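Collaborator request, handled under Task 6.
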Amino acid sequence: MRPGIFFLVVGPSGAGKDTLIDGAREALAGDPRWVFATRTITRAADAGGERHDAMDDATFAETERDGGFLIAWSAHGHRYGLPAALVDRLREGRCVIANGSRATIAELAARVPRLVVVSVTARRDALSGRIAGRGREHGDAIAARLDRAVELVVPPGVERIDVENDGTIEDGVERFVAAIDGAAHRLSVVRYPVDTWRERIAYLPPGSIVGATDYLGAGRVEIEADGRSIRTGLHVASTEPALAVDEIGLSRQAFEDLGVPEGTRVELRRAPAPRSRDALRAKIRGAKLTEDDYAGLLGDIVAGRYSEGEVAAFLVSATRSLGDDEVVALARVRSSLMTPVRWDEPIVVDKHSMGGVPGSRITLIVIPIVAAHGLAIPKTSSRAITSAAGTADAMEALARVDLTADEVRETVRRVRGCIAWNGRLNHSALDDVMNAITRPLAIDSNRWSVASILSKKLTAGSTHVIVDLPWGPQAKLRTRDEAVDLGRLFEHVGRALGLVVEAHATDGSAPIGRGIGPALEVRDVLQVLDNDPAAPHDLSAKAIAFASRILAWDPSIATADAGRARAEQLLHSGAARAKFDEIVEAQGRRTPPARPGSLTHTVHASASGRVRAIDILQISEIARRAGAPVDKAAGVDLAARVGDEVRGGDVLYTIHASAAVDLEAAAAIADIDTGVR
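Structure tokens returned to the collaborator:
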């Protein structure tokens, strides 16, 4: 059993220590955890004041010699002692409350397992009035007693609690009881060896001093220490490593978020229900919410006031019943939760793609074309989640992408553009939760994505945004009509936010380019920038089309036809390639650059015929099994494209890998299904 706590109550005469102790004794009556010590005093039993055990001087001295006192001291012409038997109560796990002397703190701390000093304070006028009311001292004697007050100094390792007792007796007792009860329930933080990913979880042992089962349930708990607090879920852990009864274990995420050293004393309490709970329940029922509703709700989600299950219920419902006005409201609220970036530019452009098409790495071509023209284009991109390469993964084959906000500003200032990873800039933990819930269940989250994407563009300081919406049987958007409808929503929400947004539905039925995987996609990009005759025409054409639209926002260009002419001129003259090299140098060139893996496996056609389709999901999976995108060298290099005539035995594609085991895994999948139809 954990030893109990010794609460030493100190304070100047007239502070009301005895009154508060008596009030606490009554309030906590019947709770066996609490023991209220009776002092032995060399004062007559009928002398008034606190209840005490009277003892003459000689008997007191004899008792002290025989070890009958835990601690003894002199004050105001009397001897005071606390019985040694109190140690037995501490060993039983009980908490002892005793009126004592500040002069004994250091000595007492060495004799009890855990000492908490409760300092009771009051204003000087309150102290004077209470002393006068006793009738034992008057006038100058009272003033002299008050003047003897000294600052309370608590030795290192001893806890201190301050209780103000200036008001009514009821108020003072309430504060006192709350203070000692809170201290009795303080727990020591342990970094528990569990990684719960982004979810904060706290762990209590079954026999916790706070009563572990009292905190179980759907709600969250609040843990506070040193002015910092977090909200977490709570589990009871009876497995190894065992927690002591006065310890609380925090998962990796919870420990890092609280940010205090192991061993810090914390307070645990049930978190009050979030004020936005009515809005959350309304949305789960399918109701429409206002911008104020979303402000409160998203603020509570970001603050961790809801469990992951509650957030999941909200997000699933939100994907099914988001009206256009709600998407606008969500975008505005989300942007308010992020730090905005300001550019001293009349036009700041950006490009976004809904993705889902392997090899469509046009961003690495569009950015240098636009930057070479002179428009500012601070592009932040994601890494792959389910594909073989995201834009950031591909760029990372050549340059550093984990730029800070200051580095993005400096890069754009120097070379007019960048291609950075958004994880260090405007990444949203809310999107992590959303993706973890919706993607495994194949839930349509496109309308939510519009709010997410445009809120990030707004806070990134963009004024003009072009959006690529690929559609196809295996793309995120399955039909052209679906892509067109989503494009209208992008443009509607953009106007509401003060952005110029232009959305385009594009063919996403097949891979674009030949390379699938970071290094292979970069190879295709460099071929386009170098005007290599072997460059994939579809990749070049799509990049030119989007660059043309962006350049048309420049008043000196004004039209898409003039934009196309300017884009082609910048590409064919080598200006875009030179600008791309400048961007790579500004971000930090990777030396050596990642190149396609030297280990290869060739997949051949089993029969002659025309390629009518390429299964983009299967091809992406083969590239991922080869190691992409973590292994920048891994991927698939397509030899046959949709519409090509092939003969039996012709090469369909080559798998590249850096590790033999990865190559074998990818080849095994390809042997079952090549993905080429």
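The cover message to the collaborator said: "Residues 632 and 667 are 18 Å apart (CA to CA). Residues 187-270 form a domain with the Barwin-like endoglucanases fold (CATH 2.40.40.20). Please let us know whether this matches your experimental observations."
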